[in-house]
């Protein structure tokens, strides 16, 4: 070519083999904010199309799980939940836990389940996991609402429930949970593109994870009963999130401030690592997926 | 002086062949180790040019190798090449779906790519909702879409169904709606792959017209890949010919098309399975009843088909079309018996057709076969296509070569000449 270009204007962008080490292009994500909102809308509108009960499924699942847990773990196995009714204890834990697992499993599938779209058009890939985290927020909101309905019922029946100074910070805990789910999910999703084994691991891994995340028992209980294994729980940031949420919602237990600080740092590191890995993968995953 | 809007420098793309399985981790670890001690990726040195027909030595191939080009603002560039030449890979890289193994591409404007129409359409959502969703996926904002909504709906011609979930649409309507969204994109650079090959003839005309408006009237830069050479010719001003992952030619569209046509290989025999267990083509061939494998205009050409039928059928469609070198249909030939309802039982069959001498002018041709159940389903695809070259015969003066004249693209040259005499 003999077109010598005199003064080339600034290039808008450049395609290179690899992304820069850390490039979370927030400006670009912001430019695609409409896509994010439309994706969220799509997820919400289409989930329960052609079902009879529709969004009621959002309620049925945690309610039945709570009832089952109450019967098995509290009535049968005799786990004590203190002054709080076991059903409400379980409902609070499950609501919180469900949001985390929904974010985690949803985002861990990002590349595989979106391969069709990703293979045809470019948009900031991080929009897809963000969609999962945000659209699950609505489901979480509905479940939280039903929790408060039962909360009011038990309060009226005379259970010693009370909010405390920490309760207004509950949304903050939810955000931490979402970010942690997002970070872990992005790490897994990046690896799943090459090694599908992981998606099988996630299936039962999440179930097992629930048992070491203090979902069905208070943290203090395990420290009291099997202190030699308590470290598993104490190193698990999820346990602190669940425990803190219960403190905020039900006013039971202690607020694990040190634990929450640890969780914050852990979440931050996981999130950064997740973004790094995601950035590396998004460029050419379509060749291996 | 033209302003360069896309500049590609040394782009290459390497693919790993075979299964991703054992050995993947080994290679990954080896790569990682090399990058850790600051050495070059050991697998980048190997790899071969991408030629499907030759069995290679290495597990790695280069789908693209050292591609360089510059595209100026307002140009409409056609990327042409045989199947497997690297066109789609190049488009994928340019539209940022995947990244090159080496090299870089710089862009001076916003890019929208149409590798498929209707990406992200959701069957449960209505036409209107899908316009917004698809538009946003292609990079438009809600505001932009809303301001063009009426035009999009009008262009698609689906006004009546716009609030119906698209899963209830006919496939034609679906495609119309999808293309309509894409047609109203307003990026500086538009990358289009083969999307015009959808919809009915009327809509295709409309789509090509719209593409012409976009490129000519509105001065947008367009990169266009298509097997429809007629569309490429009418739309593009410049062409890039890819061969085995390398740029074989770059220049004016007419020269580029000639270059492409002359590089087309001939395939006069095909064996395989084209279809399914109901009805499938097993082999096709073309011959001239002689040892000389060069086909001449004076030869009788025999087209021989073998097919396998799995069910009892009384309305089989069996035939082929002769296409010109740039894929314009010239003649359709059928064993067409669905009016008589002759019953054909399951089994393997052989069919022969004869093209009489002096039917076609010299040049490049392609034959596309058609095995169908009338009004139900076509079983054959283009994979069984034959391509052949017809040479001029010295004895009879068929002087107008189809070859090198993309303009004469539907010329039948029968030998209808009777005499020439001097009366006075």
Structure description:
- The complex is a heterodimer of chains A (289) and B (424).
- With 289 residues, chain A is mainly alpha-helical.
- Chain A has one domain (26-41, 53-287).
- Chain A has 13 helices and one strand.
- In chain A, helix 4 runs parallel beside helix 8, helix 4 (86-108) runs antiparallel to helix 9 and helix 8 (170-192) packs antiparallel against helix 12 (237-250).
- Chain B folds into three domains: 8-70, no CATH class; 88-263, P-loop containing nucleotide triphosphate hydrolases (Rossmann fold), CATH 3.40.50; 269-391, Coagulation Factor XIII, Chain A, domain 1 (Distorted Sandwich).
- Chain B has 424 residues and is α/β, with parallel strands linked by helices.
- In chain B, a hairpin with a 3-residue loop joins strand 18 and strand 19 (377-378).
- In chain B, helix 3 crosses helix 4, helix 3 packs across helix 5 and helix 4 crosses helix 5.
- Chains A and B meet through strand 1, helix 2 and helix 6 of A and strand 1, helix 1, strand 3, helix 2 and strand 5 of B.
- Strand 1 of chain A pairs antiparallel with strand 5 of chain B, so a sheet runs across the interface.
Strand order of the largest sheet of chain B: 6-7-8-4-9-10
N/C terminus separation of chain A: 37 Å
Any idea what the CATH architecture of the largest domain in chain B is?
3-Layer(aba) Sandwich
CA distance, first residue to last residue of chain B: 62 Å
Question: In percent terms, what proportion of residues of chain B is strand?
Answer: 25-35%
What's the count of strands of chain B?
20
């Amino acid at each position: 070519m003999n077109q010598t270009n005199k003064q080339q204007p600034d290039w808008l962008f450049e395609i290179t083999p690899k992304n820069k080490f850390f490039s979370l292009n927030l400006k670009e994500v912001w430019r695609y904010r409409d896509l994010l909102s439309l994706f969220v809308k799509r997820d919400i509108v289409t989930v329960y199309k052609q079902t009879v009960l529709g969004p009621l499924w959002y309620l049925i699942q945690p309610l039945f799980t709570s009832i089952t847990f109450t019967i098995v773990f509290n009535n049968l196995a005799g786990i004590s939940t203190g002054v709080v009714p076991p059903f409400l204890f379980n409902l609070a834990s499950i609501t919180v836990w469900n949001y985390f697992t929904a974010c985690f499993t949803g985002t861990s599938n990002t590349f595989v389940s979106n391969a069709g779209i990703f293979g045809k058009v470019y948009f900031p890939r991080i929009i897809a996991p963000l969609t999962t985290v945000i659209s699950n927020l609505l489901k979480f909101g509905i479940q939280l609402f039903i929790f408060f309905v039962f909360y009011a019922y038990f309060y009226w029946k005379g259970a010693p429930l009370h909010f405390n100074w920490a309760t207004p910070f509950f949304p903050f805990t939810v955000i931490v949970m979402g970010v942690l789910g997002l970070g872990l999910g992005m790490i897994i999703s990046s690896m799943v593109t090459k090694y599908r084994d992981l998606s099988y691991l996630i299936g039962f891994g999440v179930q097992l994870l629930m048992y070491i995340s203090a979902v069905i028992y208070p943290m203090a209980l395990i420290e009291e009963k099997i202190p030699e294994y308590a470290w598993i729980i104490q190193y698990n940031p999820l346990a602190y999130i669940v425990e803190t949420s219960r403190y905020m919602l039900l006013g039971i237990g202690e607020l694990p401030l040190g634990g929450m600080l640890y969780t914050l740092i852990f979440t931050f590191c996981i999130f950064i690592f997740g973004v790094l890995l995601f950035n590396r993968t998004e460029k050419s995953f379509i060749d291996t997926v | 002086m033209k302003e360069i809007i896309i500049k590609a420098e040394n782009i290459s793309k390497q693919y790993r062949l075979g299964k991703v399985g054992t050995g993947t981790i080994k290679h990954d670890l080896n790569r990682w180790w090399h990058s850790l001690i600051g050495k070059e990726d050991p697998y980048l040195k190997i790899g071969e040019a991408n030629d499907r027909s030759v069995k290679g030595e290495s597990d790695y191939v280069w789908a693209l190798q050292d591609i360089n080009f510059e595209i100026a603002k307002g140009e409409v560039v056609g990327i042409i090449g045989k199947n497997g030449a690297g066109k789609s890979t190049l488009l994928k890289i340019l539209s940022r779906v995947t990244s090159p193994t080496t090299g870089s591409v710089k862009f001076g404007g916003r890019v929208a790519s149409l590798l498929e129409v209707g990406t992200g359409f959701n069957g449960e959502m209505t036409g209107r909702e899908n316009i917004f969703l698809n538009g946003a996926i292609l990079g438009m904002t809600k505001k932009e879409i809303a301001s063009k909504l009426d035009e999009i709906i009008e262009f698609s011609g689906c006004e009546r169904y716009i609030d119906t979930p698209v899963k209830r649409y006919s496939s034609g309507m679906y495609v119309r709606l999808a293309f309509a969204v894409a047609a109203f994109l307003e990026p500086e650079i538009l990358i289009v792959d083969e999307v015009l090959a959808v919809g009915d003839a009327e809509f295709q005309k409309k789509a090509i017209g719209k593409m012409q408006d976009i490129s000519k009237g509105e001065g947008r830069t367009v990169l266009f890949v298509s097997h429809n050479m007629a569309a490429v010719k009418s739309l593009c001003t410049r062409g890039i010919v890819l061969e085995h992952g390398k740029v074989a030619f770059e220049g004016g569209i007419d020269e580029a098309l000639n270059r492409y046509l002359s590089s087309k290989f001939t395939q006069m025999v095909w064996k395989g399975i084209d279809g399914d267990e109901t009805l499938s083509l097993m082999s096709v061939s073309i011959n001239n009843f002689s040892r000389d494998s060069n086909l001449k205009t004076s030869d009788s050409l025999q087209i021989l088909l073998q097919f396998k039928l799995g069910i009892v059928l009384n309305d089989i469609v069996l035939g082929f079309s002769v296409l010109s070198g740039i894929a314009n249909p010239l003649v359709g030939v059928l064993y067409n018996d669905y009016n008589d309802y002759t019953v054909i039982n399951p089994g393997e069959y052989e069919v022969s057709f004869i093209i009489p001498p002096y039917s076609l002018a010299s040049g490049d041709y392609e034959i596309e076969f058609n095995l169908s159940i009338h009004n139900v389903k076509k079983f054959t695809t283009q994979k069984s296509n034959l391509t052949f070259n017809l040479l001029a015969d010295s004895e009879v003066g068929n002087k107008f070569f189809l070859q090198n004249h993309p303009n004469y693209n539907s010329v039948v040259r029968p030998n209808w000449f009777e005499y020439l005499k001097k009366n006075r």
